[in-house]
Amino acid sequence: MSDAVTALAGARFDGIATIEEAPVQGMVTLRADLTARKVGTAVKTVAGGPVPGPLGWFNAEGRGAAWMSPDELLLFVPHGQAAVAVAALEAALKGLHATAADVSDARAVFRVSGPQAREVLAKLTPADMAPDAFPPGMFRRTRLAQVPVAIGAGEDGFTLVCFRSVAGYVFDLLAGAAAPGSAVGYFPDGA
């Protein structure tokens, strides 16, 4: 069996913000009635916390959950445990109209951090990146230039999830927007 690798072998760029490909991450898409008690229990068991509310997420120590739509979550688990997580969800949700799928190998994850991280993303997405409109703990689907992405705001930067097939394009977009000298000062002092 071959070792799991990221799409871009851990690519990194340092400019007005740091762009780095995250290590391999287990990810599971869960479609279900998110208000069902069984779903809440299963998510807590697999992801380590409650079902997040609309546009919410949590992620700590390789486990977490992100709200994707009224009936969909993206669950984060340590790499190599996604298949186990899918099996656990299927067993816990038996009898409910629900589906779980391991999407780990179909996604790439990037971290955007540093004082100008918010500005770098604001150059590329139509989502309002203002601190009061996109505070830590928020997660939303949007696009970056021409491709779909999901962005999560954390206390120390942003996590961006995209399809693995466009990882090179996304990295190049982010690196271009973070080029030294490219700050426009829209969010002063990295606010």
Description:
By secondary structure, the protein is α+β, with helices and mostly antiparallel strands. The chain has two domains: 85 residues, Probable tRNA modification gtpase trme, domain 1 (Gyrase A, domain 2); 79 residues, Heterotetrameric sarcosine oxidase (Alpha-Beta Plaits). It has four helices and eleven strands. The protein has a six-stranded antiparallel beta sheet. α1 packs antiparallel against α2. The longest helix has 11 residues. The radius of gyration is 17 Å and the shape is globular. The termini are far apart. The relative contact order is 0.20. The mean pLDDT is 94. It holds the Pfam family SoxG. This is Sarcosine oxidase subunit gamma. InterPro entries: SoxG (IPR007375), TrmE/GcvT-like (IPR027266).
Measured between the Cα atoms of the first and last residue, the distance is 45 Å
Dominant shape? globular
What's the tally of helices? 4
Number of domains: 2
Query: Architecture of the largest domain, CATH level 2?
Result: 2-Layer Sandwich
CATH class categorisation of the largest domain: Alpha Beta
Beta-strand residue fraction: 25-35%
| Class derived from helix and strand content | alpha+beta
Poorly predicted runs of 5 or more residues: none
CATH topology of the largest domain: Gyrase A, domain 2
Strand tally: 11
Strand order of the largest sheet: 1-2-8-11-10-9
Helix content: 10-25%
Gyration radius over CA: 17 Å
